[in-house]
Design a protein that fits this description.
Strands 6-5-7-1-8-17-2-18 form an 8-stranded mixed sheet, sandwiched between helices. It has a 4-stranded antiparallel sheet with strand order 11-12-14-13, covered by helices on one side. It is of the alpha/beta class and 399 residues long. It has 2 domains: 267 residues, Alkaline Phosphatase, subunit A (3-Layer(aba) Sandwich), CATH 3.40.720.10; 87 residues, 2-Layer Sandwich (Gyrase A, domain 2), CATH 3.30.1360.180. The longest helix has 24 residues. A hairpin with a 4-residue loop joins strand 3 and strand 4. It has 13 helices and 18 strands. It starts with a helix and ends with a helix. The N terminus is likely disordered. The structure holds zinc ion. Zinc ion binds next to helix 9. It is found in: Cell membrane. Its EC number is 3.6.1.29. It comes from Loxodonta africana (African elephant). It is a single-pass type I membrane protein.
């Protein structure tokens, strides 16, 4: 009798737990390892990341947006918009009308971000849910008067472990529950710049540390009972290519630098001509060096989706892969690796891996656009997406 009662009790309990699980809102953790070039996955060992992929999905190439820089692409991931539409068109910007400047160390003015609504804001406006963020670009800014309920002010000195510990704490016990969380880490971008992606030895070292971070992330989620019900996306903003001191484009050799302001330098230079000298400046730059393309704003190729925004300057210079634009040959070139180049170059592409109840297990896909990630995330979270440039049909196959 006691035994029967026990079985009945257990059955009820399991049914109840099941029911509770069904009622849990879907949750998503979005992780970015800055500058994780797609083919690192083929050329280096990632035992922890491979385990994650084996039980989930892999997209081998993510076609990112032009210019292939950090702030612009991180904002495209969370808005589904091209840069001309979300307004973060470079890591260094200047707005002629307001005379405002933007840089990666001066990024807190909502003015720059308010042309779009990122998913962490939408998530908090549609229902009784919170968002949480550990240093994803823009998450410490009041965008449309809102930050994530839980966030950290950007500080590159804070360790991966501390960022992750905050995220898992917020995912575990918050009311209203955190259903969207995001985590950013500066590597392998920093090492890619410093050593260049062809420096196998140094890249192997930093990529092993990243794989260990992924191992720690999975272990921690399992330990806290978050793993089974949480959807996790691991991706990046751009790749990296090898540069050289031998491949410099020297602007001072072609044009007097008092005739223009250089808003952003390399590999996509944003040029603001002075004193209505646009035609003269353009002609001088056009004849300057065969290793870069020079465009008037109205002639920027349509495939870049990089034209219709006041923050895009009247002339842009696009260096060929591996070439660096400098104003003066005596400028020290400190980086052996860079990104920002044409987004059709495979070396500029990151990858995407995902795991969780929303995703297939053991599924591989060749390519998606970075703007297609946003509508997929909205679908997973049950959010009505903001207008965007993505196509859910392109990422639906991962679910
Ligand atoms: Zn970088």
């Amino acid at each position: 009798m006691v035994f029967l009662f026990f079985v009945f009790f257990l059955g009820t309990l399991i049914a109840l737990l099941h029911h509770v699980n069904d009622d849990l809102p879907p949750k998503l953790l979005l992780v970015s390892f800055d500058g994780f070039r797609a083919d690192y996955l083929q050329n280096y060992e990632f035992p922890h990341l491979q385990n994650f992929i084996n039980e989930g999905v892999l997209v081998e190439h993510v076609k990112n947006v032009f210019i292939t820089k950090t702030f612009p692409n991180h904002y495209s991931i969370v808005t589904g918009l091209y840069e001309e539409s979300h307004g973060i068109v470079a890591n260094s910007m200047y707005d002629v009308a307001t005379k405002k400047h933007f840089s990666d160390s001066n990024d807190k003015d909502p003015f720059w971000w308010n042309e779009a609504v990122p998913i962490w804001v939408t998530n908090q406006l549609q229902g009784n849910r919170s968002s949480a963020a550990a240093m994803w670009p823009g998450t410490d800014v009041l965008i449309h008067n809102t930050t994530p309920s839980y966030f950290m002010n950007y500080n590159s000195a804070v360790s991966f472990e501390e960022r992750l510990n905050n995220i898992t704490m917020w995912l575990s016990n918050s009311n209203p529950p955190v259903t969207f969380a995001t985590l950013y880490w500066e590597e392998p971008d920093a090492s890619g710049h410093k050593y260049g992606p062809e420096d196998k030895e140094n890249m192997r070292t930093v990529l092993k540390v990243i794989d260990d971070h992924i191992g720690y992330l999975v272990q921690k989620l399992k330990m806290l009972g978050l793993w089974e019900n949480l959807n996790v996306i691991i991706t990046s903003d751009h790749g990296m290519t090898q540069c050289s001191k031998e491949r410099l484009i020297n602007l001072d050799g072609c044009i007097d630098h008092t005739n223009y302001a250089l808003i952003d330098a390399s590999p996509v230079a944003a040029v603001l001509p002075k004193n209505e000298r646009e035609t003269e400046v353009y002609n001088q730059l056009k004849a300057c060096d065969p290793h870069m393309n020079v465009y008037l704003k109205e002639d920027i190729p349509a495939r870049f989706h990089y034209q219709h925004n006041d923050r895009i300057q009247p002339i842009i210079l696009v260096a060929d892969e591996g070439w660096t634009i400098v104003q003066n040959k005596t400028e020290p070139v400190l980086t052996l690796g860079d990104h920002g180049y044409d987004n059709s170059l495979p070396s500029m592409h990151p990858f995407l891996a995902a795991h969780g109840p929303a995703f297939h297990r053991g599924y591989k896909h060749s390519t998606v656009n970075i703007v297609d990630i946003y509508p997929m995330m909205c679908h997973i979270l049950g959010l009505k997406p903001q207008p965007n440039n993505g196509t859910f049909g392109n990422t639906k196959c991962l679910l």
